[in-house]
Amino acid sequence: MPGISGSVASSCLASVVPHGVDQRAFACLFVEHPMIATLLVGMLCVYLLSFTVMFLLISRRLQDEKMGMDVFGVGNLMLGGAYVLQLMEGAPGWSWLSMVNHTLTLCSLLAYCVGGARFFGRSTPLAMPLLYLAVGYSLLQILVNWTLGPVARYVLLAGTCAVSFVGMVAVLLYGVRSFARDLRGEVLLFAGLISGICVLNVIKLSKLLSGGFEALSMDGQFSMIFYVYMCSLATILPPSIVWLVLRRLTDRLRGIAAHDPLTQLLNRRGLGTALDACFRRPGTTARLLLIDVDHFKRINDNYGHQTGDAVLCGVAEALRASVRKDDLLCRLGGEEFAAICVGANEASALRVAERVRSSIEQAVMLQGPRYEGLRCTVTIGVSDSFSSEAGLAHAMQQADVALYRGKHTGRNRVEQNRGQSRINAALDTVH
C-alpha cells in the first residue's frame, strides 16, 4: 500500500482478522468486496444515531445535572450525520455535502470534549464554540480547496483530527493524576482507544500526501481497517460512557446515604464506614469528642426552626475549621455532633476539643439586628482511646457521661471521661 509500510499494514490487519483465518484470503475478501466497507459505514451510522437517542433519553432522566450526556448525544448526532453525508456524496472530491461532512466531523470532536468537561463538573459552553468552529472551518475548507486543491482539504481534516486526538489523550493522561483519579482504569481505556484512532488518522494523512485520493478508496485494506476500528469504537465507547454515568450516580447515592443532608457531615452510617476504613490500618487508635449545643431549644423557640438549622450549619462549619485533617466529623442527630480524633493522644484530643469549644463560642452564626443577641456554645465530652469500630459504643458511653457532667456543672466546657471537671485544669496537665 502506498504511504504505509508492509509491517504496519500486516499488524493492523492482524488486529481485525479472526484467529485461524488466513490473512491473505481475508485481504482478498476486502479487495473483492468493496461494498463491505460501505456496509461498515452504514453500521457505524446506525450505532451512532442509536446511541444518540440513548444519550438524550438518559439526559432527560438526569434532569438538572446531565453530566454531559446531552452533549455526548449532540456529538454522536453530528458524527452520525457526517457519515450519512459520506454515503450520499460518493467519490471523494469537492462538494457541498463533503464540506458539511468535514465540518460536522470536526464539530463532533468539540462536542465530545465539552461533554467530557461537563461530566467532570466543568461548566463549559457548547453552542457558541460550535458555531464559531463550524463557520470558521467551513470558510477554511473553501480557501484550502480554492488554493491547494481538493486533496489538501482532506489532508487538513486528517491532520486536524490527529492533532485533536493527541490533545484529548494528553488531557486524559493528565486527568489520571488530577480530576479523574477515581476513574483511572476507565480513563486509561479511553486514552488507549483514542490513541488508536489518532494513529489511523496519521496513517491516512501520510497516504493522502503520498497517494492522493487512492488512500480513501473504499476497496482498499486501509479503509476496511479504519472502518472496522471505528465500528469497534462506536460499540465500546458509548456503553462505557453510560457505565461512567451509572458509577458516578451510584457513588453519589452512596455519599448521600452516608451524609447528613443539612450539614453535609457524616451520619451514623457514614461514620461507621469511615471508622472501619481507618481501623484497617494496624495500630490505629482514636478518641471520641461528643459535642452538644447548649440550650438549642431556646434558639428554636426564640428565633424559629429555620434559624436553628442555620445555627447547626454554622456549628458544622466551625467544626470543620477546628479539627485536624484526618479527623472524622458526624452529626449524630438533633443538636448533637461527634468528632473522631484519629491517632490522637489525650493531650491532642483535649487541644482539639478546646479549639472547637472556643471557635463556636466566638463565631457569629447569623448577621443582622435581629440576631445580635444570638450566641451559641457547646459542651464537649471526651472519651478514652479505642481501636475498633466495635469500641465506638463504649467510647460513646464514656463521652456521654462526661458530656452530661459538663451540662450539670455549667455548660460551655470540655469534660474528660476520667472526671476532670474543668477544661482549665485539664489544659494545665497538657502543658
What does this structure look like?
The protein is of the alpha+beta class. The chain has two domains: 6-257, Rhopdopsin 7-helix transmembrane proteins (Up-down Bundle); 268-430, 2-Layer Sandwich (Alpha-Beta Plaits). It has helices at 6-16, 23-32, 35-62, 69-89, 96-119, 127-148, 150-176, 184-211, 221-258, 268-278, 296-303, 305-322, 346-362, 391-408, 423-430; strands at 286-293, 328-333, 336-342, 378-386, 414-416. A five-stranded mixed beta sheet has the order 2-3-1-4-5, with helices on both faces. It is elongated and about 90 Å long. The relative contact order is 0.08.
Give the C-level CATH assignment of the largest domain.
Mainly Alpha
Please state roughly what percent of the residues sit in beta strands, choosing from under 5%, 5-15%, 15-25%, 25-35%, 35-45% or over 45%: 5-15%
Q: Over the alpha carbons, how many angstroms does the gyration radius reach?
A: 32 Å
**Average pLDDT number:** 86
| Sheet of most strands | 5 strands, mixed
Total helical elements: 15
By CATH, the topology of the largest domain is Rhopdopsin 7-helix transmembrane proteins
Q: In whole angstroms, how far apart are the ends?
A: 82 Å
| Structural class by SSE content | alpha+beta
Stretches where pLDDT is under 50 for at least 5 consecutive residues are 1-13, 25-32, 419-431
Shape: elongated
Order of helices and strands: HHHHHHHHHHEHHEEHEHEH
CATH-defined architecture of the largest domain: Up-down Bundle
Q: Give the fraction of residues assigned to helices.
A: 55-70%
Counting DSSP E segments of at least 2 residues, the number of strands comes to 5
Q: Count up the domains.
A: 2
